[in-house]
Design a protein that fits this description.
This protein is of the alpha/beta class and 310 residues long. It has a domain of 213 residues: Metallo-beta-lactamase, Chain A. It has a seven-stranded mixed β-sheet with strand order 1-2-3-4-5-6-7, covered by helices on one side. Strands 8-9-10-11-12 form a five-stranded mixed β-sheet, covered by helices on one side. Strand 4, helix 2 and strand 5 form a beta-alpha-beta unit. The longest helix is centred in the last third of the chain and has 27 residues. The radius of gyration is 20 Å and the shape is globular. Bound molecules: zinc ion (ZN).
């Protein structure tokens, strides 16, 4: 076979393989606005991802390292369910305004999937007669957040809650501790849409401040058993289903790489400060958030390996 012919075949394979006919094109895998051709004016962004199911992405983070914080809302004849609010009353107010553009039904349920402030500090901007639902592991954090714009939950779950709202089935699921300890998923079984909150970030280094690094990977494995077709991340762009499925695998791999590297350093007897000096996370050190979250992650994994997390 001539070199040219080989090249043509490879080129043809590359053209055909990543995106099959009829599916949306691939995108640059990044959290960077400029690399994707976005400007600040393109946000907040609302996308319809299934029948009366929408995502809302607002920008957060310092200038130069802006990324999206994501919410999902599900419209039914009886009410609107929201998965995760935003980090300020202003941004959650914008989310409520977007909901009002597509439905006049009351916002009946707010699911607190991540108890971190960047997803809860705007909860006072939701109608306060909505039912706020959280996991029992999140109660203490939400109690603290109630003083800074957060809202105390009305209902606490330990395992799962199956809701039927306006003939729509919605499952609130706990698969184990991950990014916060009280990590909840919202699953729409008919549409096979899974809102993953901060268990999954799109092409962004994981936040470890209150994480359970070893359990996190198992939590992701259990969520995979749902066979969802669309995995909506807590941060990073809401891309098409193929991209997000690939990035879910990549994200899980990055958690494993970080865990394995830190476990190696721990086993070799390095102190945590020495481990922070030496740790090599390969390509993931270039991901957004790696510089700040890497050292936090190393301390957290050391604590977990030492049996200091409970
Ligand atoms: Zn967050």
């Amino acid at each position: 076979m001539t070199g040219t012919k080989t090249f043509r075949l490879i080129a043809l394979a590359l053209l055909c393989s990543p995106v099959s006919a009829g599916q949306p094109p691939d995108v640059v895998r990044t959290t960077s606005l400029s690399q994707r051709g976005f400007t600040e004016k393109d946000f907040p962004r609302v996308q319809q991802v299934a029948d009366r199911v929408y995502t809302f992405e607002a920008l957060t983070g310092p200038p130069g390292d802006r990324y999206t914080t994501n919410s999902m809302f599900v419209v039914t004849d009886d009410g609107v369910l929201v998965a995760d609010g935003q980090g300020s009353p202003e941004d959650t107010g914008r989310l409520v305004a977007e909901i009002r553009k597509v439905s006049d039904r009351p916002i009946s349920h707010v699911i607190i999937c991540s108890d971190h402030g960047d997803h809860t500090n705007g909860n006072s901007a939701f109608p306060q007669d909505a039912k706020f639902i959280a996991h029992s592991n999140s109660v203490a954090a939400l109690e603290v957040a109630a003083d800074t714009g957060g809202v105390r939950p009305d209902a606490i779950i330990d395992d799962r809650l199956d809701l039927t709202i306006g003939n729509r089935e919605v499952q609130i699921l706990f698969f184990g501790r991950a990014h916060t300890g009280g990590d909840l998923f919202v699953y729409l079984p008919e549409e096979k849409v899974l809102f993953t909150s901060e268990v999954f970030l799109n092409h962004m280094f994981s936040g470890y401040r209150t994480a359970f690094p070893r359990e996190w990977i198992d939590t992701m494995s259990r969520a995979e058993e749902l066979d969802a077709v669309l995995l909506i991340p807590g941060h990073g762009f809401v891309d098409n289903a193929d991209v997000l499925a690939a990035e879910w695998i990549e994200y899980k791999h990055h958690l494993q790489v970080v865990l394995d590297e830190v476990t190696r350093l721990h086993t070799e007897g390095w102190s945590v400060d020495e481990a922070i000096e030496q740790a090599d996370f390969g390509k993931y050190r270039k991901w957004s958030g790696a510089d700040s979250e890497g050292p936090i992650g190393i301390r957290r994994i050391y604590a977990e390996l030492n049996g200091d997390l409970n």
